[in-house]
Each structure stands twice: as structure tokens, then as C-alpha cells.
Write a structure and sequence with these properties.
Aminopeptidase, Alpha-Beta Plaits, nine-stranded mixed β-sheet, five-stranded antiparallel β-sheet, 10 helices, elongated, binds zinc ion
């Protein structure tokens, strides 16, 4: 059934969206193009003021299309507006085997144009089938790639659907993430005292040494099967002949168990304070739960709707967990049962990113089936 989609048209729409520069916080042109496409499809489209709140050029787009059968449940689809860098001047090159790559000097932006194209094509197919369907809602957030900044500002009370499908995971179409971790990001500034390292070293308090001692004693990497921890940056010092007065570090913990991830960060903070205090340095520590872990039950109606729809187009419908963040974190946080679908993008966040016509067609077919919701076979 994915074969029913005109691959030339899928490629053209994909190439069109890819050609629009849409870096995080600079999504205006992409937002305008999608608003006009969705309006032409009959959606009532609005954009919120998230752009102003987060310092971007576009807000979150919300679109609604009334169903033709009130006994059918509403459904929410989501893909994001922005792409990671290098994001300017992107081109989608179609190769003879159906693979689509960038020109090699930018990302392709299949993350998340693949999701957008599959949603648009899948909706058009569902509408033209004339079959009964419920309301369709779309949430297309800005700045997803920056800790889901856009969707954090969205007013979720506007959503009517209880089931959400977020097309924003790499891999072949046919998997859904039902579990994702908390992400606790943190930064610390250690302040000691500067002194000339040759003339008066004993007057100095070495901020870098205090931080390094704490980092060296902190377990990092995979702490257990649920939790990872990383110190990602450490910068500081002025010159080779000055005892370093200040240093800054940043890091993150991820975990399917929210409290365990928070605990790992708290343990590091305590150790850093202890090491700093030992040498007379002080610490300013900041941490934030950028994302909160969620887990959707395998018997949830959203999961069943996904698996039934996958079966109808002859794909497996595997359930997985992801270590990545997505707008689905914010969707689930607001009581909507959301899962993240793989949408046929590969090597994302790199110059080697690609998708294929076959995957775009499969993703579109899956969206169509989810909308029509014809039950199990
Ligand atoms: Zn993405």
C-alpha cells in the first residue's frame, strides 16, 4: 500500500521543504510555507506567540481539521519546524536508488522534513479516500532541537485528541518509542582566587583543580541500565602563569527513572561543593529538568492504533525506548497519550543524513492508516 503514493510528488514536496532555511529560532519562512499549505488543505491554522517568548522568528503552529464522522476519535500529529546546523542552503539530492541526501555541506533536514512530508501526504490520502475519520489536529513546534523550547510554551489545553503521534525518530518506518528519559542539564561556576603562579602561588585558590578533582571522582557514562551521566565541557583559567580563579563546567544526566537522574546530578553537586570547600573555593550550581521521563503502556489505545495501522500496510510496529528528547515529552506531560514514530530518517544531525523515497511513502501510508483507524486485521 505504500506503493499508492506518487514518489515523484513526495520527493518534490520533500525537496521544497528542505530548500527552506529553518534553523532553530529562525523558522519564519518554514512556518509561512506550512501555514499556506495547511490552509489550502482546509485546516484552520493558528500560530502562538512562542516565537516572542523564546527569541525566535516563529511560534508553534496549531492546525485543526474537522472530521466527517463524530464517532471516530480525534488524532494529533506532530513534527517540528526547525533543523540543526549546518542548516543554511540545504538541498535534497535524489539518487538513482531512491536515496535522498544533502549536497554534503549541510544536514539534509529530513529531521524533521521527512515527518512533515509524511504527515501532509498521509492526510491528503486519507481525505481523498472519502472514508470516515475523526478530527485531525497538528502541532508543529518551533525550536524542538533546543530542548523542545517551542512546545514548552504551547497551550496544550487547546488539544482535543487523546492520542498523539510524533514523527521525529530516526530509523525505518515501523517503530514507535513508548518510553523516553528525563534529561537534567546542569552548569557550575567554581570561583577560587587568582594569584601569580611564580611569585605568590600560595595566595591563589585553584578553581580548575577543585573542579577536576570532583570530575575525576565522579562516575560517568552509563551509571546503570536506566541512567547516563556526562560532564561535557570544562573551561577556565586566564594564562599559564596565573592560578585559575574561575572555571565553568556543563553536563547532563538522562534516565528513565526521573529521581535517579536527579540523584546523579545532586551527588555530583555535593562532591563538587566538597572539593571546592576543601580548597576555599565557592560554587554556583544550576540544574534544570529539561525533559521529564515518560512511559506509555503497551496496551494503551495509542499504541494499539499504531500497531493496527502498521499491520495494515505490512510492517511490524515494534515498540522501543529512546534516549532522545522530543516534543512528545511535553505532549505526554499534559496528559495526552503520545508516542514517537520512526519516520525513515537516518544519520540525523550529521552531514551524512539521508532518507529514501520508499520510507517517505511508508510513513505517509502509516499516517493515512492511523487517521482512518480501521482497527486490527
Ligand atoms: Zn527531530
Amino acid at each position: 500500500m505504500p506503493g499508492q503514493f506518487d514518489k515523484q510528488k513526495l520527493y518534490e514536496e520533500f525537496a521544497e521543504l528542505v530548500s527552506i532555511d529553518s534553523p532553530s529560532f529562525g523558522e519564519r519562512a518554514m512556518a509561512d510555507r506550512l501555514i499556506s499549505k495547511l490552509t489550502a488543505m482546509g485546516f484552520r491554522v493558528t500560530e502562538d506567540n512562542a516565537g516572542e517568548l523564546i527569541g525566535g522568528t516563529a511560534g508553534n503552529i496549531y492546525a485543526f481539521l474537522k472530521g466527517n464522522d463524530s464517532s471516530k476519535p480525534a488524532v494529533l500529529f506532530s513534527s517540528h519546524l526547525d533543523t540543526v546546523s549546518p542548516a543554511v542552503g540545504k538541498k535534497a539530492l535524489l539518487h538513482p536508488d531512491g536515496k535522498i541526501t544533502s549536497a554534503g555541506d549541510t544536514v539534509l533536514g529530513a529531521d524533521d522534513a521527512a515527518g512533515l512530508v509524511e504527515i501532509l501526504a498521509g492526510i491528503r490520502a486519507a481525505l481523498s479516500s472519502g472514508e470516515p475519520r475523526g478530527d485531525i489536529e497538528l502541532l508543529i513546534p518551533a525550536a524542538e532541537e533546543v530542548y523542545t523550547r517551542g512546545s514548552k510554551e504551547f497551550d496544550f489545553s487547546r488539544i482535543k485528541a487523546t492520542a498523539a503521534f510524533v514523527l521525529d525518530m530516526s530509523g525505518e518506518v515501523g517503530s514507535a518509542a513508548v518510553q523516553a528519559p528525563s534529561l537534567i542539564s546542569f552548569s557550575a561556576e567554581v570561583t577560587g582566587r587568582a594569584a601569580h603562579s611564580g611569585f605568590a602561588p600560595e595566595k591563589g585558590i585553584n578553581a580548575l583543580a577543585a573542579a577536576a578533582a570532583a570530575i575525576a571522582e565522579t562516575p560517568q557514562g552509563r551509571l546503570d541500565e536506566n541512567t547516563t551521566f556526562n560532564i561535557g565541557t570544562l573551561t577556565g583559567g586566564e594564562a599559564s602563569n596565573i592560578v585559575p580563579e574561575k572555571c565553568c563546567l556543563t553536563g547532563e544526566a538522562r534516565g528513565f527513572d526521573h529521581e535517579a537522574a536527579v540523584g546523579a546530578v545532586k551527588a555530583f553537586e555535593a562532591l563538587l561543593r566538597e572539593k571546592a570547600a576543601g580548597s576555599g573555593a565557592s560554587v554556583r550550581f544550576r540544574s534544570e529538568a529539561a525533559l521529564r521521563a515518560y512511559s506509555i503502556s503497551e496496551s494503551d489505545e495509542t499504541v494499539i492504533r499504531f500497531q493496527d495501522s502498521a499491520k495494515r500496510i505490512g510492517i511490524t510496529g515494534a515498540l522501543v525506548s529512546t534516549h532522545g528528547g522530543s516534543d512528545n515529552h511535553n505532549i505526554v506531560l499534559h496528559g495526552i497519550s503520545g508516542i514517537v514514530l520512526s519516520c525513515g530518517m537516518f544519520n540525523v544531525h550529521s552531514l551524512a543524513e539521508y532518507t529514501t523515497l520508499e520510507e517517505l511513502a511508508k510513513g505517509a501510508a502509516l499516517v493515512r492508516e492511523i487517521i482512518l483507524d480501521r482497527g486490527g486485521i
